Structures are given as structure tokens and as C-alpha cells.
Amino acid sequence: MKHDQHKILDCTIRDGGLVNNWDFSVEFVQDMYRGLNAAGVEYMEIGYKNSAKLLKSDNAGPWRFLNEDFLREVIPTKNDTKLSALVDIGRVDENDILPREQSQLDLIRVASYIKDVDKGLQLVQKFHDMGYETTLNIMALSHVMENELNEAFELINRSPVDVVYVVDSYGSMNHKDIDYMVNKFQRLLPEKKLGLHMHNNMQLAFSNTVIGAEKGVEFLDTSVFGMGRAAGNCTTELLVSYLKNPRYDVRPVLDLIERHMVAMREKVEWGYIIPYMVAGTLNEHPRVAMAVRNTADKDKYVEFYDKLTTPETIANN
Amino acid sequence: MKHDQHKILDCTIRDGGLVNNWDFSVEFVQDMYRGLNAAGVEYMEIGYKNSAKLLKSDNAGPWRFLNEDFLREVIPTKNDTKLSALVDIGRVDENDILPREQSQLDLIRVASYIKDVDKGLQLVQKFHDMGYETTLNIMALSHVMENELNEAFELINRSPVDVVYVVDSYGSMNHKDIDYMVNKFQRLLPEKKLGLHMHNNMQLAFSNTVIGAEKGVEFLDTSVFGMGRAAGNCTTELLVSYLKNPRYDVRPVLDLIERHMVAMREKVEWGYIIPYMVAGTLNEHPRVAMAVRNTADKDKYVEFYDKLTTPETIANN
Question: What are the residue boundaries of the Pyruvate carboxyltransferase domain, all occurrences included (chains A, B) (predicted)?
Fold first, then answer.
């Protein structure tokens, strides 16, 4: 494994926002930028660049609908760490996007299900033409059939996208799945860089990420203290500690955890929580588990397990 | 990976007792036995068989100094799940041990540092002669030099011990270390079964365990909800879900977590806690982290990190 072949992309604000409805203060986000920069993290995903016009806002914080004027106030001076935003197909207004030279953003990532890869790549093409680095993040790969994937690869190979991500949306992949997926992506997308975005339902997010990194995957998603939807992500502090690159320093990440994340974890929940673990082992979307965690039955694990494993439930899923 | 080549050894009561000073009620332990038996778990480690005469008791619960009369009251009728106890060198009184046919225990495990393997194997020989299954659990392997290990292997090969464990006492091993260790143990101890006892400081306990299992390691230590010293262990619920053996059923384990472990975790702590993570990444014994967690400075992560990484501290360690 070469010292400098990896890029860490910290998505605490974007993915963690799914947990607290993007209720992060400006000071917190500024502090996160300073900390990640000091830690040597290459990219910070500072939110979604979706359009409030196309989506009910539900009083979400500003990191859900990033605005360039606002971003310039938050991070007036950029350091080494680049800024990234994620967009969802059908939720982004392309007229919202400035050309890169006028933007605080360096990278725009497009999240796509396999059936929408054509639409995703259309967006990628536009962002690419505007000067951005681009990624295509293929979600829910554990539910994709090989023939669909092969078709998508043909489109991807003809697009200018820089990085293609394996997204383990359900937190159901293990090291054998990573081995298989990365081999396949490397073989069929020989010109593209690859990325990994793992979820921690089975306590495998960090392990899967380093196993992929050692196979040559370049872009590695993390979040500080693992903050992210449901079971959360590969933690920034573990990956920064693990990768043998002198640019990385875990100390500023520990500082962020100490000053912010422990208190935040007391207010909102993510991580190894049994309904998320059950959903992960069953290769199911975490939405049913997230729903039950908002009810008085949140710790009725056996009932939840029975619900997910009775044939009627599966048939209606 | 064959269906039936693995044995799960749940050590919740023994290793978890290090967290709560073995303060488990008889009803809880009985319920644990029923649940593990229903889950198909092959062994339950029900405590330490050390001698209260040789060790300050500190008001520890009865699972620290197992007594056969007491054990017979707790588990009058055994089912499929066998019972195990751990002993420490210098803390066990051999006269306390009944011949196996008079005992509730099936397996006695001897924990040993590399320098004491000779003493450990002397105990193994005695327990073996009394009819027990035996294991030798070599602790702190991440701090052992190859020449010491090679010497120990010669002694082990001449002993009747059934299983030899790789114990990741510091939670500092990753998949490459497991690969290396298991290959070495398999090559140099060709007649012995192997075991793994992992700690979860870096969220790698489950991953390391399954990677070892796939390489042919037979005995796999777990604990329910990961309850164990410091960062805790590979969780029983994840391993039972993962191994493709129809004898295993995760449902009774979820039931144990729901009825007992969530409340217990609110009273005492274990798991992914930053000082344990830091100690793991630095390959240090968790005792310094455990000490700091009992002080008002328990969440001063940067201070803790600085303490462990300044040269003076290391020199005095």
C-alpha cells in the first residue's frame, strides 16, 4: 500500500445531518473544517447541494441546501482540505450551481441508484463541464443484479466521471463482498478511480474500508466518531490512525470528538444499535429500523427481528 | 468454510465480569445459559476458577471464584452448551479442581503470558489428566518477539493441550496481523486446534474473528452485546448471524440483549470509547485508559493521547 494513494473524504456534516436534520451551528462547521484540515483529511463534504424548491425543507439546517454566499461566509479562506457537496437525482436544480471558479466547492458527488445511472451521469457531465471534480456514488449495491451493473458500467466508461463509489447503503457487506465488488469495479472500470462509502451496522465499516484501501480503492469516506445515518460510517479517527501517511494526524480529530461529538451523541443517536445490526445482517434498508427507534418499541429487538423475518413482511417489502 | 467446523465460546460472564466486578445475579446467569443454549452456542464461560485465598476478593461476585456446589445450584441440568472456566497462573489452587466427572465444567482454559507458558502448560497437564478439555490462551501476543513464540511452540507441541488461543489483549490487531498470526500458529502447531479472543478497541473484533474463522480457526470467543473489559469483545449476536450453520439462531441472543444488556450498559461501560481506541491504535495495554475513565478527566481525549505519545510516558511504561 503506497503512502499517498488515498484520499479521505469526511462526510460528517452531510451524512451526520441525516441524523440531526443538519442542525449544526456555523461555529461547529468552521471548527470541523479547521480540525479536518489540521488532521490532513483531503475532502470535507459540507452538505447537500439539493434545492429547497424541489424538496420539503422540514426546517432543516442550511447544510441541506448549500448556498454559495452562505458558504463563503462560513469558510472565507480555504486551506488544503477541499470542499464537497452531494446531490440527489431529481432534487438538484442545475441553475443553482455556479461554475467552479466562482464556487467554494471543488467536488460534486452524485448519489444514484443503479436504475438512474443514466440520469446521474447526465448531472456528472454538467458538473464536469463546469469545472468540478465529480463522483458517481452507486447506492444499495447489495441489491443490484449483475446484468444491471454491467449495463451501468458501459455508460460510466463513456462518461467523464472521476470517481465511482461502492456504497454499502444497508451496512450488509463483509470483506468477501468488498473483495468481490472492488475486483469487479477495477476490472470493468479500468480508467476510473474508485471510492468506498461503508455503513457500520455490523461493525464492519472500518474493516471494509481498509480492506478496500489495500486493494487500491483511492477515495475513502469517513465521519468523525462515525456520525451518520442509522449505524453511521467508518470513523475518521480510526482511518487517520491506520493509514501510514505522515500527512495524517489523529490529534485534531480527537479534539473534535472531545469538544463536540460526545455531547452530540447524547442528543441524537447513531452507531451499533441492535435494530440497525439486524437490518444489516438481513441486507435490508435501515428505514424500518429508523422508524422503530422513534417509537416506544425501540428496544423490542425480538419483535423487530420477527417482523423482518416473517414471510408476510418480506413479501410486502 | 465448512458449516460445522466452528465452536463459539461466549465469555460474557467471565470477561464481562471484569467490567462489573462479576455482579451478575444467579437468575441472569441462568437466563444467559438458557439463551446461549437456544442460540446454539457451544460453550459458555461462566467465570474464573481462581482461588479467593490467593487473590483479594474486593467483594467480587461468585463468578470470579467458581465453586462446584454453587455451580450445581445455578445450572442443575446442563443442555448442549458446555461450561468453561478460565484460570490465571498463580491464582488457581489446583486442590480446588474436582475430577471432571464430578464437575459441572467441561473445559478449563489457562490464560498465560508468553514468559509463563511453561507454568501454563503444567496446569494444562493437570487439568487434562483430570479429564477436562483444555486451552492455553496466550495473551498480549502483539508484544511478543518471534524467538519467544518459537520457544513456546516447542513446549506446546509436547503438551496435551487441545486448543491454543491467539489473544489480542490490547485490541491492536488488524486483518493482516490475524492473517500472519494464524498462518504461523497453523504452520508451527499442526496438531493443535486454534482459537481467537479479540478485543474491539478499533472496531475490528468481529472482522478479525471471521477472517480467522475463514482461515480455519475453530474456537471463536464472543460476548453478548460485546460486554467485556474496556472495548469489549466480538459480539455473540454478530457471529451467530454470520456463520452459516443451521444450529445457530440469533433470536435468543437478541432476547438476552433486550432484557438484560441494554440496562446493564447504562450502569457500566464497555465498547468503542475513545481512550480505548487510542490505546488500541498505539498497541498499549488498556489499563491506563481504564484508569482515566474512572476520573473526572475521562473525556479529555487529547490530553490522554498526548500522555500516551510523549516520549517520557513511553519510557516509564
Answer: 6-258
Q: Which residue of B has its CA nearest to A225?
A: B274
Summarised one tens digit per residue, pLDDT across range B78-116 is 999 999 999 999 999 988 899 999 999 999 999 999 999
pLDDT, position B161:
98
Determine the Cα–Cα distance for residues A123 and A112; give it in Å rounded to an integer: 11
Does B241 sit within 8 Å of A302, measured CB to CB?
no
* Cα B198 from Cα B205, distance rounded (Å): 5
Residue with cell 508484544: B143
pLDDT at position A312 is: 66
Which residue, among B243, B274, B309, would best test binding to A if mutated, counting the most A CBs under 10 Å from its CB?
B274
Side-chain-facing half-sphere of A210: CA atoms under 13 Å: 21
Cell 490512525 maps to which residue? Answer: A241
Three-state DSSP state, B85: strand
CB contact under 8 A, A254 and B301: yes
Nearest to B273 by CA among A233, A230, A265: A265
Residues B284, B148: one domain?
Answer: no
In a domain, B1, yes or no: no
* Residue A54 three-state SS: helix
| Cell numbers standing for residue A305 | 427481528
Is residue A1 included in any domain, yes or no? no
Q: What is the ipTM of this complex?
A: 0.94
Q: What is the CATH number of the domain that holds B35?
A: 3.20.20.70
Residues B72 and B57 in one domain: yes
Chain A environment of B301 (Cβ under 8 Å): 254-255, 257-258
Give the distance between the most distant pair of CA atoms in chain B.
56
Give the helix/strand (H/E) hosting A253.
helix A251-256
Number of Cβ within a 10 Å radius of residue B191: 7
Q: Which domain holds residue B230?
A: 7-267
Smallest CA–CA separation between A160 and chain B, in Å? 35
DSSP 8-class letter at B97: P
Predicted confidence at residue B112, as pLDDT, reads 97
Same domain, B117 and B173: yes
Task: Kindly state whether residues B240 and B289 are assigned to the same domain.
Answer: no
- Looking at the partner chain, which of A175, A205, A254 has a beta carbon nearest the beta carbon of B302? A254
**Percent of chain A scoring above 90 in pLDDT:** 91
Residue B313 predicted with pLDDT over 60: no
- Residue-wise pLDDT for A268-277, tens only, equals 999 999 999 9
Instruction: Give the count of domains, chain A.
Output: 2
Strand partners for B110: B87, B136
How many whole angstroms separate alpha carbon A61 and alpha carbon A69? 15
Residue A157 has pLDDT above 90, yes or no: yes
- At B281, the pLDDT band (50, 70, 90 cuts) reads very high
Q: Is the pLDDT of residue A57 over 90?
A: no
Contact (Cβ atoms closer than 8 angstroms) between residue B199 and residue B233: yes
Shortest alpha-carbon distance between residue B205 and chain A (Å): 9
A-chain residues near B242 (CB < 8 A): 174, 202, 281
The string of pLDDT tens digits covering residues B130-141 is: 999 999 999 999
- Give residue-wise pLDDT tens across range A279-290: 999 999 999 999
